[in-house]
Amino acid sequence: MITSTKTPSVPPEHRKISPWTWIGVGLWVVVLVLGLQGFYERMLHGSLITDLGGWMPWGLWVAAYMWFIGLSAGAFLLSTLVYVFGMKSLERVAPLSLLVALVTLLMAMLMILFDVGHMGRIFEIWYRGNPHSMMAWMGWLYTVYFLLLVVETYFALHNALIAARGHVGLSGRVARLLTGQRRTLLSESEQHRERHITTVLGAIGIPLAFAFHGGVGALLATVAARDVWHTGLYPILFIVGAFFSGGALFTALIAFFWPVRDKEWMLTVRTLGRILLGLLLFSALLDWADYQVPLWYGVGPEVRELSQVLTGPFWWVFWLVTVGGVYLIPAVLLIAKPKSPWAIGMAGVLSSVLFLAVRVNLVVPGLATPELPNLPSSYHDGRLLFHYVPTWAEWELVLFVVAVGVVLYWVGIKLLPVWGRDVK
Amino acid sequence: MGTFSGNPVPKPDGGLVPIPILPPPTIPSEEDIRLVMQSDLQRALKKPMGERQWGMSIDLQRCTGCQACTLACINENKLPPGVVYRPVLENDSGTFPNVTKQFLPRPCMQCANPPCVPVCPVGATYKRPDGIVEIDYDVCIGCRYCITACPYSARTFDWGEFYGDLVDGPPTPYEQVPSLEYGHVWLRKAGTSPINNTRKCQFCIERVQRGELPACVRTCFALATYFGDLNDPEALVNRVRQGRQVMQLKADMGTNPSVYYLL
Prior knowledge:
The complex is a heterodimer of chains A (424) and B (263). Chain A has one domain. In chain A, 68% of the residues lie in helices and 0% in strands. Chain A contains 13 helices and no strands. The radius of gyration of chain A is 22 Å and the shape is globular. With 263 residues, chain B is of the alpha+beta class. Chain B is built from seven helices and twelve strands. The radius of gyration of chain B is 20 Å and the shape is globular. The chains are: A mainly alpha (424), B alpha+beta (263). Chains A and B meet through helix 4 and helix 5 of A and strand 4, helix 4 and strand 8 of B.
């Protein structure tokens, strides 16, 4: 897929379907088939398909929801670098980042919907939400964020949509539907006005993204009963993690899937690589602080939980997947090959995909030790354990959400002019 | 019995409040304490709901760890696999031959400041005027946030399992009898509450409102659990604490449990 900048620009519709595309499609079909199995199991048997229990009530699905919503927040915040802070070097990829933010938001919502026991009641948050509850606030903030994303994406793409009215096929029909009677491109003043609207929406979105993703951290951090979670660092950790993982995903998409491999693309990828390295280092610093501070003297309520993460049976999730896959290898790639789009893209893939492990290690350890001594031996039941390993069906449902997300993304790039090729 | 004629102490607003002088502690062998608690309960039920605060005192010196209370609770509330309201925690200490075993029954603490209540995104769990922390099964969305927030692990989740599943059979006859939690009739069926809801001890409030003691109290042959109105100085649940060392679980968290342990 990746070629040098010398490769002539070819409009994507004229490109031959490469073997990589077929491999990608094949992979997606496998993910979808497995995902459909997980979806079927979830709908038929509910939460019974999980390894969760009364004393470890959250697991992979909650971690995956936090992973997806972090990707969304990160992708959105990247778009604000253009729309709010006027960063020219990312100008033409900004609409795509809005689409990525929208798709990953929907994935997060789907994931958390599957996690709740009574899916049909989740809408009660809107009309009888409890303002004391951090979770209720999440529901409200996601709603506002979704609306903001839709409106901002519309204004960001408005001119390109008008230009795409003449397209044959579904994309042209969508463009005509979304632009109404408007047939001429926006004038300078209209463009200026709509850019101002996008800037305002982006500016509103920044505190919103900080609120809802810091809020995800606060969702855990406000729970005083859980020593590992109950730290003021968590909301910050989540915001930085979101920016990092979302930025990584977006970098990978630009590096590997941007249709036109020209010099400008190369510069954009390098810019994203530099941003990614900065975020990686900042995120690693906060993660290090989160572990090192409570462990320093080896006493205190969190020591047992955190030691489990570092040296327990799932030590490899921390050392190999998180330290190695999320931070170390991407850092080496970004530092050693700062000009290689492949290296930058691969760093993005590793950090964004494996970031799920970071979320799992934030959610699960807080629940893995008894709140009262001798509780595990007090009552023997398969659902009352302090041991959790996600079942195959849990993984399959995550794959289902990923497969749906890929479809949404594919539909988005096919129907909307997010590549920006229609407007000169 | 109880009077309020002790030396007055200052109130925060500057006034004086008399120190209650409680009746002498009960010697179980000299009173039929179940009858005493029953009459305490009747007295409390005559008061407006907001003026009584249900609570428990559990005498750890008397608890034998027989777990009859755990089983009585399961039977009363028709609890399915994966759900327990009142486990008895056991702790071994010392080395042979100098060993001891301690037991600690753990119902819901019905905290005065319950951390499980504010986290509920839809307000499905709330503190009743009589001190019971209730769950509205018809509103609970099953997010399990409250389970994470309870410092006592007093909440568990109804995953929809049946004991019949363990032998690949239909639900056992026991599971076809409804529970009467919170005064409603709950027959567990797939997809309907209380399946996929958080569940917890509610001091058998349905029994209490009928003038019956909670099942765990009724069953405790060692007479280790006392139940009654914490606002009634004459109630046995308060009298037994007199002259004893008393603790609340994790008192430092500020939850102010309505369950007192006598050491």
